[in-house]
Structures are given as C-alpha cells and as structure tokens.
Amino acid sequence: MATSGDMSHWDWNIGKKVIADLHQWRKSFEWLEEPYVSPDGETIAAVVRTKDGMFSVCVNGDLWETRSDKIWSLRFSPDNRPAAFVSNQGLWTIAVGGRPWLNTYEFVWDLHFGEGGGPVIVAAVNKGRYVAVSDGVPWSQGYSFMTGLVVSDDGGHSAAVVQSAAFNPGDIFAFQKGCYTVAVDGRPWDRSFVNVWEMSFNPDGTRLAAEVRTTLYDYTIAVDGRPWDRSFSSVWQPKFNPADGSVTAPVKVKGGWTLARDGEVFWDQRFCQLLHHYHSPDGSAVAAIVAPEFARWSVAVNGLLWPKTFNHLITDLTFSPDGKHVACAARKDGRWTIAVDGLCWDLAFDMAWTPVFSPDSCHVAAKVEKAGRFFILVDGRPLKLEFAGAWNPVFSPDGCKLMIRGIGGSEKELSYCRYVFDMSGLPV
Amino acid sequence: MHAVFNFVRGPMAGIAFAVFIIGCLYQMASMWRLARKKDAVVFHYFSLFYALRSIIHWMVPFAALNMRRHPVMTGVTFVFHLCLFAVPFFLSSHAILFKESWDVSWAWLPDGIADIMTLAVMGACLFFLGRRIFLREVRYLTTVSDVLILFCVALPFFSGFWAGQQWPGFPVMTLVHMISGEILLMLIPFTRLRHMLFFPVIRGYMGSEFGAVRRARDW
Amino acid sequence: MKKFKILPYAALFSVFLLAGTMAAFAQENIEIVHDAAFENQTRPPVAFAHDAHNEKAGIDDCGECHHAYADGEKQMGDDSVGMECSQCHYGKPGQGVADLIRAYHLQCAGCHGERKAGPVLCGECHRRR
Amino acid sequence: MTHRPEQPYEIISDIGVEKGAEKLTPERIREVIRRYLEEEGGARLRVYADTCVHCGLCSDACHFFLSNDREPRFSPAGKVKQALLPILRKKGDVSADFIKRATEIAFTECNLCRRCVMYCPFGIDVAYLMLFVRRLSHKLGVVPQYIQDTAHSHAATMNQMWVREDEWIDTLHWQEEEAREEIPNLRIPLEKEGAEIFYSVIGPEPKFRAQLIYQAAVIMNVAGQDWTMPATPGWDNSDMCMYTGDEEMVARLKKKHFETAMRLKTKRIVMGECGHAFRSVHDVGNRFLGWKMAPVPVTHAIEFYSELFQSRKLRVKRKYDIPVTLHDPCNVVRGGGLHELARYVIHETCSRFVEMHPNREHNYCCGAGGGVINCGPPYTHKRVVGSRVKAEQLAEAAAKGARVVIAPCHNCHGGLEDIIKHYGLDLEVKFLGDIVYASIDKEG
Questions:
Q1: Residue A134 falls within a domain, yes or no?
Q2: Is A65 helix (H, G, I), strand (E, B) or coil?
Q3: What pLDDT score does D14 carry?
C-alpha cells in the first residue's frame, strides 16, 4: 500500500470537518460520477459533465479549468493530487491536479503513483508502440505489445511484460519458442519466455522478479531475467523479502502448493492452494492465504496454520507494521468479516475491505458494508457512525488518532465529512 | 463325486463368498482411497438428496428418457437384473442351503416361478448376445470379455435349470451349476460385473453434480 | 466349515432315516418319508427303503437316526422312535418348515456327505416322476 | 463377432496436430502418459473406464452418432474405446499416429456436452474422459492449431482474442459513446470500486460483437443497476484452456477473473451470454483453485434478465413478434439449469414461441461447444455434418413457424449459424439479450 510520507503534516485536530455538500453537487451537475477522496481526507473529487456537454472534475466544489471530451480513472495520488485520464479530439493524456501533461497519446491507461509525491506513471500507446510514461517522460524504447505494468514503491522504476519477438497470427510454434520478456524502465531482459505474468519489484526498485513459463508446461520464477534452475507445474506471484532480498513464491509441486525461496522449496507443508503471500515489513515473517484442504481457507504464518478456516475465501491479507500480527477479510457462509491472528470478529457484513493496522500495531480498523450502508470497525466493534459512502480509516502516525472519511455520517444529508477521533474517544 | 461335492458345497462355497465379499470391499475401499487421494473434490460435491434422486430415477423402470426410447431393452434389462438377483437368493433350494449353512431363512419363490425367472435370465442373455451381434453400435464396443461374461452369467442359470428339471446327466449338471455359480460370484469384483458395485457410486456422484451444482436433471 | 457340508438334497436322505426309524412303523418298510408338518410340498417326496438303507449303511441302533436329546446332549441308548421329526424340529415361529427341512437335510445328506456314500444332490432324492 | 468394416475416416490435416506429433517418440509418449496417469488418473477415470458395460445405450445421446448414420465410432463409448482405452490398457505404449487420432476424436468429435451422461444408465461422464485425453494431448504438445492459438492468447493477454489492454478500454468507451446516442446519460462505469455487479464478457464480444456490450450497457442503465467493468485484464470470463487440457492456465485465468471482481469489491459477477465461460466459472475453474463454488457468486445473463423482469426493473414496451424458438445451450442448461428461466424471459419478451424438440436438458448440442468450433476451419465440415440432427430439429421448429432461434451462448451462435448456412435453413440466430434489448421500455 503506497503511503504518504508526510502524514504528520495532516490536520490531526480532533473534530469533524464538512468538506463538501454532495447534494448540492448533484443539483449543479446533470452528470456526477462516483466521488474519490484524497488520502488526507481534505479533498473530494468527481468526474462531472458541464452544461456545455464537456467533462471536467469537480474538486471540493470547484471545477478543473480544462474541459475534456472524456475523463476516466479519477484517482488521488498519495500526496493528495487528483489525477485522471482526459481526452480531447481523440487524443489522450493525464491531468494531474487539473493540469494535463503536454504529451498526448492515442491512448493512456493504467494509472500508478509513486509513494509520497513520487511520479505518476501510466501506460501509453502511440502508432502501435507501447511505453510506460513517468511524469510525462516515456520509456526510450517502445514495444509492439505491453501488458501488466508495475512500478516500484517510490515510482522510480517501471516494468511491464512486452513482446520481444514477432510471430504471425496462428503461428503456435513460434509462440512456443518464447516471444515475451520484461522491459524494466524500457530496457528488455535479454532472455525471452513463453509467458511472463505477475511481477514484483524489490523495495528499492532495483530488482524485479516475475512469474514465467519457459515451455507450455514449465513454470518458474525469473529474477532480473534469470529463471530459477528448478521449474514447477505452476507458480504464483513472487515477492522479495525486504530484509534479505531473497525471492519467495508459491509453487506447485507433487503433492500440492507450497512456498519456495530462491528456487528451492521453502515450506514443508503442502496445501491444496497457496494463493498469495506477504512478507512482514521487517522481513521476519511471511504469511499466506492457503487452502489446507479443498474448499477450506485459512492463513499460514511462517508455515503455521491458523486453526480457524473459512469455507468461502480469504482476501486482503495485511501485516501489522511490527510484523507480529496478521489481519484479513474473510467470507464464511456467504457473509464477510474481519479476522485478526486467527480470531474472527463476531460480526457479519455484505462486504469488507482491507483491514488497517495502527502504526504501533495495537489496533485494527476496517471499513465494511451492510445493505448499502458503510460502517467503520475498530478492534472488532462498530463505531456509531453510518455512511452512504466511506473510505478506509487512517491512523495518525503516532497511532493515537483515527481519521474517518465518509459521506452522510449520521445525518440525512449527503455531506462528505472528515472526522478525527482520539483513540480513547471513539464513538462506540 | 462325493469328494467333489463336498468340496464345492463346503470349502469352495466358503471361498467363493469370501472372495466375493472381500473382493467387493477391496474394490470399494481402493476406489475410495484413490478418490481421497486424487479426486478429493468428489466428496465435497456429494449430496445425499440428489444422489438418491438420481439413483431412484434410474432404478425405476422407464423413469429415464433413454429407457423409454428403448422399451424392449429396458424391459429385458429390468427383468434380467431382477431375476439375476432374485433367483439365487429366493430359489427354494438356495434358501434352504442358506438355512442349512447359517440357520437363516426367508420366504422363497415357488419353483415354477423360479423356473420362469431362470428362463428369463437366459433369454435376456440371449437378447444381450443378439444386441452384441446385430446392433452395430454395440458390436463395435463388444470385446471378447463381454461375451465371456455373458456366458459366465448364463451358465449357472442354464445348468441350474437343467439340474432342477433332472434332465439326463443332471448330477453332473448340478455340480457344473454349483461350480459355475461360485466362479461367477468370485468374478464379480474383478470383472466388468463390478458395475453392480459402482452403479450407485457413479449415479450418486453424477446425480449430486447434476442436482446440486448444475441444477439439472440427469435422466 | 462343517455346516457347509450339508446339501439340501441331503434332505432326502435324512427324511429316509428319520421317517424310516419312526417307532410306530419300525417293522414296516417305509417307502415315502412322511411328516405331518409338511403341508405343501415344494419338491417331490423322497422315497426311502428303511430296512435296505439301514442294512447297507450298517445302522443297528435306532437312536442313531431317531436320536434323542436332553439338555442339548445326545442320550446314548435312548431313541425317539415313534415321534415325528417335527415334534422337535419345528422351531422358531415362521421358520417351522425351514427348520424341519434343515433337520432332514442335515440328517440325511449330512451323513451321506460325511460317509461319502448315498445321494447328496437335490435331484437324487427329490426325484421327479 | 463378425466386424463389418467401419467407414474409413479421413485424417484431417492440422498443423498443430501434425507438427506436434512429429516431435513425439514412443519413449516420450509413454513417459508423459504414465506420469499423468499416475498424477491425475484418479478414481473417476478408473471407475468410469472400468464400469462401462459396452451396452451402447449412450449412442442415441450423441449428435455426432445420430448425424453420421449411426456410425458406431461416433458413439460416446465408441470414442472412449478409440481414444482412451488403448492408452489405459497399454499404459501409454501407443504410437504418435494413435495420439493424432485420439486428439482428433477428443477435440473435434466430442462437444463435451454431457448429453450422454443422461443416457448412460450409470451416468458415466464421457466428457470427463474426453477431457482427460485432451489433457494428455496438451501435455504431449499435440493440439489443433486454432484452439491452441486461442489458448496462447489467453496466456499472453488473459483474454481469448488477443485483445490488448488499451483496445479493451477503448472498445468500452466506444460502445458507451454509441449508446449515448440512444440513452444520453448512459454510462459504462470502469473500475468503480464497490459496485454491486461486475459485468464480464468473453473475448469475442469486444472483438467481433461489440454491440452486445452496447446492449448490456443499455439494459444495465435502464434497469438502474450499480455495475462496473474492469479496465484491466481479468475482464474476460472465457476459457479455451479448459478445452485444450491446460488446467494450469485455467486456474490462472480464473484466478485473474475472480480476483479482478474481488479487487473491485463487487458482490457478484454477472456474465454475458456464454456457455463455456459459465461452465468455467461455475464448476471448473473454481475447483482447480480450491474454491468449492465461485468465490464471487456468478449470475448468467439468462438468470440476470429474468431477475430484472421479475423485479419489474425491466418492463416490456412491445413484445418481439417474430416467432422464436429456443436452443438450450448445454453448459447453462445441463450445466446450470437455466432452461425454465430462459423460457420465462422469452415469455415476457416474445409474443410467439415455438418449442424445439427435444428440449431443455435433452436438447441437441449445437456442434460447436466444447472447443470444437475453436479448432477452426479444418474441422468445420465435419462439425456441420455431425450436426445433421440439429439441422433437422431446427427445420422442424422452422416448419412450425419459428423464424428466429434464440441461442443464449456464443459458441452455440457460431455453431447454429454454420448449420443454418450449410443446410439452407430459413432461421436467424439471436441472443436473448438481442430480444430483451429490442423489447424493453428504454424510457425506464
């Protein structure tokens, strides 16, 4: 999760701020898309159509100066700038904070941000050449095909799967020789693969690991272009251990799925499935979403299973900053809840979002939804607030306060409000 | 004669029943173990309700569309299987043998009915043989073992009928009957005859998949 | 395993023995095994030449076939001549005839099987006409 | 047993099969087959193969058999006999020529429609057995070229039609713009997190049938649905890898699809009118990943339309008055039980409906499903010849007055269109969505 480095400068004074009256927005615009809110909660924005039939973005009630034929993918950067893809006369670019980049493209998509004020990176195509563009600067080399753009945490590096060799439509044998590779900052790896899929940068963006298939049947992980010696019948997304730089990935071996590290099987256990794994921020622990048996889902931390299993699914696994706790969203018998360290919160919802740990790892908060109303849970209890729309809660850097961003609040009107509560004074 | 009889009536009968029962248990257990190991999913989709729904539909004559499309085959098949099970258990001579050996008894069929049923089994075997010879799609599928099995099924009925009628040479036929019957029993777990074991298993599993997962009928 | 030794057809023989040794008719040469309990006969009745059989089988003691039991023990020197088999061998409700048939079969064919002499197959005793 | 010589079959030339088989050696065939028999040949394979009593009762289920003058080698058990039993009996000691022939049978003479399951007294799943043969063919690298190319597309782009990331989004923009001419405030919401519905389609929709996306957008907007479509790979719910035997790719594709729906925090996936994709998300792909049922509930278009009519979110303005008949696609009827709902929607939207016979679970396959149409032109002739009974069935419905055949499945569409053309039938194929779109009150 990209976070802003500057959270301490945000307004952490306890209280409620009414940022915008969306009811008013609704009256002003015949066309109002779903709003987005800045990480600091101070800004709300939405794509709107103005009376001239053009599109713009309304930010806290003010419109961007530029008008466009079309706008999509409005999102806030970690440093609270609204950005969106905008098009005029069939040409596309991205506008950040209302200002479009000078370069235009036939198409732009796949918006990425570097952490805390880092660059904005997008995928773009011109005349059949695909590139990634970072703050307006495209890769020096374009490709005939590109997919799966990823960027490093700070946004300093970008990589995508690209086509390295041309083949005619239907030439299955050329395809099987390997026509895909990874371009990192525009430069391709010197080795091609039959396929390359999910990729991960290491924390400083200097290394890249990817799922690859070297034949139709041999799956492995390639790190900086070099595949592991051993291949597997399947693999999922690799990750770097932030502490020692080793690369880990779920792999399928005889008997089931397990975790491999640097090409060797790392965990003794075999699972029916091992979908995603995550390293703790300090690299001391690794947790994974696993199915110990068919149709039962649980979390394995360093290979040890939570005793609790869920029959539907587990998603949104997250480590506490100190690496000692793990939380996730889980669905059982059709209802969602939050589970922390194997213990389930005794509440059921229609949807649950990624749980958020406090910086001191002592508290967990989460956004949930039931029957179209949104609620914030803290440590297993719902706050006495109910929203028509809400965003994930945010802890202050010292962990003493909690910011909540929501539309509607307890009132009937459609106001977007930003609340800051002291952790000892939560409305429970 | 007495030595052969004593063996066939005694140890061989015991062996035949043991091979049959243990063989069936072994087949079921090994199938179960294999399923646990490599087809674990099938257990997760098993639904008793839908399994029974399907099994019952396929145990009731003419309840499935394909049975109605082949009325003669359906009729013959049901009569055949019914008689195939009923005669060995409910023929008076057999019932008395069970009574003598294990002191358990049940109602038995009048011999005249049993005779007719025996003829029905033999007739059905002939019918099946005819299908295997004259129906192209069945002939195409037929293997030597299919014909041998048909023969193995018919023989105890044929010889039993002969012995029952006390036609010339019936003492030998009686022994042929006993031996062929015991062989047939032992063959069940190890030949295609084990379809009798797997019928409820497959039908139950497919019934569960069709009913619970695919929300459709399978008959 | 011993239990397996008995064939239904041995029924015949035991019928011979039992019937033949019935006390009331001891001196006569009984030709058909008869017991009042057999109401509807499934199989043809069994012909039995009492004296000829006993002579051939070397049976002198009536009690060998017309056995007498007390407290589950066979009473040596005692016999049941004069009784119908069904007086004892007509046991559990609903299984009366089966019990009786069983007794006959065990008695006749059981012995034949053990001695490897005499008919053991169904049709050997229950002769059709 | 006097065997009448069977009709000779013509070996169809397919570069994927030919060149693939050239690379095979007896050792490799044996090694690969034994390995996968050992690893994946489980109880179902054993029990199905061992239990079949060769009664031939499955024959009448198969349109290939019926259409080819009851030629025995086209019966379901006949195909198992040719393509699978020698492999099991000889434990993989089969020739490259055998593999070629087995591949052709498993890929192009069986639509995996599972009609025969309903005709076999035991319920033996011949589709499962044919898929096992396909799995071996895949592992041996002997797969018809066209469908293999489609599988490659899935692997490279996560969709079936080599649609690039930008092309996908651009197509949605384009359809949105088109539809706004009709409904000014229509929107195709992209990447709308937390929407109720994740709408997914198959690759051919943006590629060849973009009007279906248009129609779906109109229906969603008129019915006031809270929906979204993703702007990333994962939008395609189709899955030809399921039919080439590349199960590892099936898992990868379905993971991408389901996780895209989860990433957007949508509550359910509503999918367009596709049959095989429904099979893939409803009871195949989820299993390869360890989920008993789809991790995000899946609603097929038929079910979705019926829901919208039942809840009065859609109202009919003028019923479609050309007489229609309905083709029940195997994967949503035998595989999903949606036949009555389809009839309900037709009843709501059409004034004249002619039943085809047989129908519902017993309907004849279109001849295209199970990846057969995806094996491409080399097999088209065999496919339409193998669909003669379907043509007769259609002709009968046409004789009763039907002018339009509704086929709520893409593959069925392709298959039926080929049949109609080949046999010169006077019928037009339409999606249920076409009818719904044409008949509803769009003013809302």
A1: yes
A2: coil
A3: 95
Count of domains forming chain B:
1
Provide the angle, in degrees to the nearest 10, between the axes of the packed helices B71-90 and B111-134.
140
Please check whether residue A34 touches D, CB under 8 A: yes
Structure tokens, D35: 């390995």
* Residue-range domain boundaries for chain C: 2-125
Specify if A273 maps to a domain: no
Count CA atoms within 13 Å of residue C35 on its CB side. Answer: 29
CATH match of C2-125 with 3.30.200.20: no
Distance from CA of A184 to the nearest CA of B (A): 41
Residue C5 touches chain B, beta carbons under 8 Å: yes
Q: Cβ–Cβ contacts within 10 Å for residue B106, how many?
A: 12
Closest CA relative to residue B178, chosen from B54, B6, B51, B60: B6
DSSP letters for C74-109: E-TT---TTS-HHHHS--STT-HHHHHHHHHHHHHH
Q: Which residues of D303-315 are buried (b: 16+ CB within 10 A; e: fewer)?
A: bbbbbbbeeeebb
D158-309 CATH pick, 1.20.1510, 3.30.160, 3.40.50, 3.40.1000: 3.40.50
Asked if the Cβ–Cβ distance from B10 to C5 is below 8 Å, we say yes
Pairwise CA distance, residues A162 & A181, whole Å: 6
The pair of structure tokens assigned to B206 is 């497919």
B42: three-class secondary structure by DSSP: helix
Closest CB to D72 among B37, B136, B215: B136
Residue B125 lies in a domain: yes
D334/B210 touch (CB, cutoff 8 Å), yes or no: yes
Query: Has residue B145 been placed in a domain?
Result: yes
Residue D97: Cβ-neighbour burial (10 angstroms; 0-12, 13-18, 19+): exposed
Report the C-alpha gap between D86 and D106 in whole angstroms: 14
Q: How far are the Cα atoms of A46, A77, A366 from residue A416, in angstroms, in the given order? A: 12, 19, 19
Asked whether the beta carbons of B55 and B200 are under 8 A apart, the reply is yes
Here the ipTM equals 0.91
Evaluate whether residue A285 is within a structural domain. no
Q: Which amino acid is at D314?
A: L
| Residue B209 included in any domain | yes
Domain count, chain A: 1
- The answer to whether position B218 is within a domain reads no
| CATH architecture classification, D15-143 | Orthogonal Bundle (1.10)
In the structure encoding, which two tokens stand for residue B43, read together?
């257990």
Residues A45 and A83: beta-carbon distance below 8 Å: no
> B207 touching D, CB under 8 A?
yes
Question: Residue A147 and residue D165: Cβ atoms within 8 Å?
Answer: yes
C-beta separation of D196 from D267 below 8 A: yes
**CA D226 distance to own-chain centroid:** 28
At residue A267, the 3 state secondary structure works out as coil
Q: Is residue A174 part of a domain?
A: no
Residues of chain D with CATH 3.40.50: 158-309, 316-439
Map tokens 């889980």 to a residue.
A330
* One pLDDT digit (tens) per residue for chain B, 219 residues: 789 999 999 999 999 999 999 999 999 999 999 999 999 889 999 999 999 999 999 999 999 999 999 999 999 999 999 999 999 999 999 998 998 888 888 888 999 999 999 999 999 999 999 999 999 999 999 999 999 999 999 999 999 999 999 999 999 999 999 999 999 999 999 999 999 999 999 999 999 999 999 999 999
pLDDT tens for each residue of D98-129? 999 999 999 999 999 999 999 999 999 999 99
Q: Does A110 touch chain D (CB under 8 A)?
A: yes
How far apart, in Å, are the Cα atoms of B172 and each of B119, B178, B179, C47, D360?
A: 20, 10, 11, 21, 57
For residue B149, the enclosing domain spans 2-213
Strand A158-163 and strand A146-151: the pairing is antiparallel
CATH T-level topology, domain D316-439: Rossmann fold (3.40.50)
**In this complex, does chain B touch chain D, defined as having at least 3 beta-carbon pairs under 8 Å apart?**
yes
Whole domain around residue A95: which residue ranges? Answer: 1-138
| Angle (CA) D207 D16 D389, round 5° | 70
